[in-house]
Amino acid sequence: GAGVSQTPSNKVTEKGKYVELRCDPISGHTALYWYRQSLGQGPEFLIYFQGTGAADDSGLPNDRFFAVRPEGSVSTLKIQRTERGDSAVYLCASSPGTGGLYGAFFGQGTRLTVV
Amino acid sequence: AQKVTQAQTEISVVEKEDVTLDCVYETRDTTYYLFWYKQPPSGELVFLIRRNSFDEQNEISGRYSWNFQKSTSSFNFTITASQVVDSAVYFCALTGSGGYNKLIFGAGTRLAVHP
């Protein structure tokens, strides 16, 4: 597709359940990022992939959060034992290369609500 | 540590007024990049501009202009003759020279342009 695609656009889940959020980056972009945006705040970095490997996962809040990118394209963010505090918009971004030279192109996000 | 401060939480103007959104940053890097993104109600972050730390020239793009002042660590954004379609949340962001563009966002400024 032309832009970064995220599915689902909205997800409501019960506390304690497992969820998966999908990101389909712009074709050919090697770098992929996940951010989390809480209400009224700016996006906060979660994890960065270069190709298939997670180059920096320092933003993941705890071990309930995990992300994969097995073929260097689509990525899945996985959250186990969801808590109400996980409710936020999860944004995915991709970039044609690393470094500030390229910036990042964002998807529309997945709004996760944990009830 | 890197930090971006957008002191203005909300700004309300009447159409055709000029408006300036402030951004102050902190970084110890000598090479860095600054960005502005627009987030309309749809939620997608739209890239507006990228500026590297060695280029202090002001930039104008249509009704948008940016004033980068390294001496005051500021990267302000001005919209001339604002329009209702400019209503959105605007984020300033910073990335370091670590080889990848992990963006540090400010909290955002919500701009409301009234007819």
The radius of gyration of chain A is 13 Å
Shape of chain B: globular
Low confidence ranges of chain B: none
| Most extensive protein-chain contact, per-chain counts | A-B, 30 and 28 residues
Task: Provide the descriptors you would attach to this structure in a database record.
heterodimer, A: 115 residues, 7-stranded mixed β-sheet, 4-stranded antiparallel β-sheet, 0% helix, B: 115 residues, mainly beta, 51% strand, globular
Explain the overall architecture.
The complex is a heterodimer of chains A (115) and B (115). Chain A contains no helices and eleven strands. Chain A is mainly beta and 115 residues long. In chain A, strands 2, 4, 5, 6, 9, 10 and 11 form a seven-stranded mixed β-sheet that branches. In chain A, strand 7 and strand 8 (75-79) form a beta hairpin. The N and C termini of chain A lie far apart (33 Å). The mean pLDDT of chain A is 93. In chain B, strands 2, 5, 6, 10, 11 and 12 form a six-stranded mixed β-sheet that branches. A four-stranded antiparallel β-sheet of chain B has the order 3-9-8-7, with no helix packed on it. Chain B starts with a strand and ends with a strand. In chain B, strand 5 and strand 6 form a beta hairpin. Chain B has strands at 3-5, 10-14, 19-21, 24-26, 33-39, 46-52, 59-61, 64-69, 74-79, 88-95, 104-105, 109-114. Chain B is mainly beta and 115 residues long. Classes of the chains: A mainly beta (115), B mainly beta (115).
Describe this structure in a few short sentences:
The complex is a heterodimer of chains A (115) and B (115). By secondary structure, chain A is mostly beta strands.
Compile the SSE list and pairings.
The complex is a heterodimer of chains A (115) and B (115).
Chain A: E1 5-7, E2 10-13, E3 19-24, E4 31-37, E5 44-50, E6 53-56, E7 65-68, E8 75-79, E9 88-95, E10 105-106, E11 110-114
Parallel strand pairs in A: 2-11
Antiparallel strand pairs in A: 1-3, 3-8, 4-5, 4-9, 5-6, 7-8, 9-10, 9-11
Chain B: E1 3-5, E2 10-14, E3 19-21, E4 24-26, E5 33-39, E6 46-52, E7 59-61, E8 64-69, E9 74-79, E10 88-95, E11 104-105, E12 109-114
Parallel strand pairs in B: 2-12
Antiparallel strand pairs in B: 1-4, 3-9, 5-6, 5-10, 7-8, 8-9, 10-11, 10-12
